[in-house]
Amino acid sequence: MTAAILSLSAVAFTLEYAVTNVANLSHGEILTVGAYAALVVHQRTGSALAAALAAAAAGGLLALAMHAAVVDRFIRRGTPTLVIFIATLGLSFVIQNLLVIRFGAANVAYTIPSGAPFELGPFLWTAVDLEIIVSALAITAVLYLIISHTKFGKALRAVSQNRELARVSGINADVVASATWFLAGLVAGYAGFILAESVGTFNPSFGFGFFLITLTAAVAGGLGRAFSTMVGAVIVGIALEFVGGYVSAGYNLAFAFAILAVVILVRPRGLFVNARRSVFE
Amino acid sequence: MTQYLVSVLTEGAIFGIMALGLNVIWGWSGDFDLAYYGYVALGAYMTLVLTIGRQPPPVQYILGLELPYPVAVLLAVASAMALALVIGLIALRHLRGIYFSIVTLGAVYVLYAMAGQFVPLFNGYQGLSGLINPMADTLGIDFNSYQYFFLGLAIAVFLLVYFFMSRVSSSRFGLALRSLREDERAAAAFGRDIYRLKLKAYVLGAGLGGLGGALFAAYLSAFNTSAWAPLETVVLYAAILVGGRGNIRGVVLGVLIVYVLIEESTRFLPEIPGHPGIVLALRPIVIGAALILFLRFRPQGLLPERHYVDRVQPAAAEANAP
Question: What span, in angstroms and rounded, lies between the C-alpha atoms of A32 and B201?
Fold first, then answer.
């Protein structure tokens, strides 16, 4: 469950990183905005499907705006990536507090009747659980097809390896970067929706908390590499479920970062890196 | 009104000390450290557990001594420096750029979770309280004039730190740090021990953070997890950036602008009916936006750092060469 949501969020984060070399510290806010968009649309229309689409659309637009208004402007001036990293931290402050102004800082409840639990294998499932896992798998499959089998995916991989070389071989790197951020935003916005659905309540700092775990998963898997990031997310997600179950959920974040610190120190380029470096590994 | 001014100035002096400490790490050494507010918090917690003595259960925490305040401050600074030494030894060894930032971010969240969840340490989320007007009895200061005394103390400590930093700024150590920030490899080629220098800067900066925390604890007389958040560091970064990274006069100006102007001016905005907390939320928006805009349009800040030039100019050096 956590692993499924985490892998969507982490893949989106890693795609953002792949094409711009920027670790987007305001990534969590895409999830938060997705969750709020879902809530608003769900209240208006009463349809969970519309809510899911709204979450993805809001996330995509927000990511596109982040890229166009902040990240790309810095990149065009050749600013060091650390500086852009700091700027995205400022952006995270701004978005979180705009949400506080619009929706208030308190938790809002978002519950979808999940239906009676049923048994499947050794676990108890609800319809929502199933929906989350199936949709996460489906999105992953679609992402895989896009990245590995389309022209756009090829361009994306080229830009992530070397932006200048991609440009001289006739790829419009700026468009590819914007489109990738939009795609990542769609996925992250949807991840915000299913996260809100599974947690049941959220507030404006909800995405940031989850982002910290996302960061762990993405770095553990390998920043900028979509598929190893997914594996990292599954490992971190399962590890966290164990900590939450056997120690205390309060230490979740601390535990995630302990994993992260060890991974960064031991294998700074991620757990699954071989000599061939691409978004694919 | 005087009461208000006194509290603004006291806070300003305390934040000034913290910002000068962070400036050593980010301004000179060039490391974007996100754990910094952890050292402030540790300084504050340590000051409390060293001075307030034992309290009846269910309140529990480590130590519980009743040391005189100045001694507690020194020990609090030492403990912040010790923690920084441990984190720095790990994080500064190979990590730079965002990887360093991510590890320090992790470190501070671990600290935050420990302070909040692990009750025997600092009494968990309830936190610590009971440090009321330290040194008032020994010095015979009554309740009403204590705030002036504490303002004087905070400003005196701030000035001491400021003069110390202005010495450090132009010392060989300060110049060496800047050379690391500009080009680590070149500095290494000139025989600088990068790891050691960066570690020294990190521990020195964290010590000042602990000092700021120790004063802050006495000012608040209590400390718990709602009194600090790991990301409070961002406000300090905004102050340094707006004022002028690396230039201590700039840093002080930045603290004046960010803490005093932004924090205090929003206090007087009228509350909009039906939207409670809107003013509180505006403050981080302004700070976040200032951070982005300054990074984009004026990364050197309002008072830029002086450019240090090699006293031996290349042409002159060539002429002198045999």
Answer: 37
> Using the 8-state DSSP alphabet, how is residue A113 labeled?
-
Q: Is residue B89 part of a domain?
A: yes
Cross-chain residue pair B98–A85, CB shorter than 8 Å = yes
Which domain range does residue B97 map to? 2-230
Q: Where are the beta strands (DSSP E) in chain A?
A: 108-109, 118-120, 123-125, 201-202
| Best CA proximity match to B234, nearest among A93, A69, A205 | A93
pLDDT digits (tens, 9 = 90+) for A48-71: 889 999 999 999 999 999 999 999
Chain A residues with CB under 8 Å of B116 CB are: 250
CA distance B118 to chain A (A): 9
Residues 6+ apart with CB under 8 A from B309: none
B62, part of any domain: yes
Residue B109 counted as domain residue: yes
Give a yes or no: residue B221 inside a domain.
Answer: yes
Reported as a single tens digit per residue, the pLDDT across A223-268 is 878 888 888 888 888 888 777 666 666 677 777 777 777 777 777 6
Q: Which residues of B touch A81 (CB under 8 A)?
A: 97-98
Q: Is B140 left (phi over 0), alpha (psi -120 to 50) or beta?
A: left
Band the pLDDT of A276: cuts 50, 70, 90: very low
Could you give the ipTM of this predicted complex?
Answer: 0.84
3-state helix, strand, coil in chain A (%, to 5): 75, 5, 20
**Are the CB atoms for B29 and B40 separated by under 8 Å?**
no
A246 Cβ contact partners less than 8 Å away, ≥ 6 residues apart: none
* B129: enclosing H helix or E strand: strand B128-129
Instruction: Give strand pairing partners of B129.
Output: B222
Return mean pLDDT, chain B. 87
Count of the separate structural domains present in chain B: 1
